[in-house]
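Archive maintenance. Older records in this collection stored only the sequence; we are now back-filling the structure field for every entry so that each record is complete. The fields below show one back-filled record exactly as it appears after the update. Entries are processed alphabetically, and GTPase Der is next in the queue.

ARCHIVE ENTRY
Title: GTPase Der
Organism field: Solanum tuberosum
Length field: 633
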Amino acid sequence: MLLLRNLKPFFRRKSHYSFGILSRATTLPDQITSEFNEICCRRTFWSSTSSCNEMIGLSSSNSRNPYFFHNVAEFCTLLGQEKADELLDNAAATSSSDRGKEAKYTTREMVDFTQIHINKLPRVLIMGRPNVGKSALFNRLIRRREALVYNTPTDHVTRDIREGIAKLGNLRFKVLDSAGIEAEASSGSVLSRTAEMTGNVLSKTQLALLLVDARDGVLPMDLDVGKWLRKNAPGMKTIVVMNKAESLDDCDGTLASAAGEAYRLGFGDPIALSAETGLGMAELHETLRPLLEEYVLQNNLCADEEVQDNDSSSEDMECKLPLQLAIVGRPNVGKSTLLNTILQEDRVLVGPEAGLTRDSIRAEFQYEGRTIYLVDTAGWLERTKQQEKGPASLSIMQSRKHLMRAHVIVLVLDAEEIANTRRSMKHVEVVIARRAVEEGRGLVVIVNKMDLLRGKENYKLYKSVTEAVPQEIQTVIPQVTGIPVVFVSALEGKSQIAVMNQVIETYEKWCLRLPTARLNRWLCKVMSRHSWKDQAAQPKIKYFTQVKARPPTFIAFMSGKTQLSDTDLRFLTRSLKEDFDLGGIPVRILQRTVEGNSRTSTSSKNKQSANRMMERVVSDKRTILAVENSRTT
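Back-filled structure field:
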């Protein structure tokens, strides 16, 4: 039970300052009930023992017309006057008929969206013209800052379809963030390709949220988007959302004026909200809930999921951990094309333009019974003064964040550029590879665009590239030996098996664990074949064990004060990689000094000192006896 004064944030009419009693499935005490009846100045409609799920507030300026609030899935929303009168009449009828009994309020059972499999959740697409706050609403729904948000009226930040799981109260659904639509974009341009991709996604979507800017009103471009939506998805259920409505007010008529303009789109009643502040999310919840529940019940998704869980319960124990895979590299080397080839679908936008990808797009797919999360990052650029601000800087920061989260990193190189410059890796690519090694990630190098070096005239060039690239990579990155290099052509779409097999092999090495007994047998053989400079000062390893995987980390327990030198550590690391086939992943070896037990050491010292005293005493007795014998003789 909570008594609040000045409930200004809960009201659309910000000029009304009110107080109220907020309750959630609780019992009203007699004292609050009497005060509530006195303030209301109307007939008694609430019993002292009634249990309610409603939120009721009273206006201090006009006590005869109280405001009513309804508890909607962890939100608080203002009810209309008709709904408030209906609630008042129902409560009065209940109190008059059963005044001495507890009032019972039954609510309709809602679908439990948490029990539905992620792949079967309904899909909701956010669309609209550029710079209306689509990515901001996407971040608000998934409760994370995944999509890039930047105020660029003359440019498009979002270009690909981003997907996430929305958590709106008790609702769960897949939400998709799309690029801004310009219906009059020229054919073949980036905008026309993004619109075409959005149209393909519409065929797999159940609902659409059409966003407009409430401050600017409905512009001709918004009307064009509405016409485009009717043309590409005539049967799509569409909800008009007036974003950026935090500055509008009912008193001066700005909110009503914006709503009147939104009716021109022809998609029904609009919803006013603010993705930045969270205002109006309760109204969005109430609008989406019946539509999503209807879709779930019509397709019987809950029952299918229960059967699936019962059938697959025995296989859950054998399922493998998900693999986090990140594709990184410089701009225009074919990262997005490689992602589409691996997924076998046009998931992200591709083209000859450099820097086409800005957002880091994450996709989930299954490969040989294993769940893999694949991330396509933006092109890694060298930092300049122009890139310190704007979307480019945000893209670089997001790429670095996904580099830290990945298990295996795929570094993509351009074969044509290698052949022209006679150099395998540039400074930016060397920085990426070394950072991956320092973070302990698995590394796979992909040399793309090998189709440009085929033919009789390029045979020698093709052969020289395939031979020189692995050697130069080993020279540039000596910390990791045996880095796998795969030569592919992502444009042909035939490189999925070669790339994924190498990625899975590297990931299994990264997760490898070796038993201690096997390591110590290996250690005896390795130590015998190593040439030590000084046999007397040779470090003594008591035992060798692996303490963790991902990446493999070992500890050498040393007996004595002599430690392994850097040369000895490099020798052991190289021997581990060669004997256990751990190429392409970083291996770490730590040292620990083993000290003897203090009790045993002190007891041994006491025994040694006692023996020495006994020897001295015996020797003294012998000398004394010898002197006495000489005197008697």
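Update note: The chain has a mean pLDDT of 76. DSSP finds 17 helices and 22 strands in the chain.
Entry marked complete.
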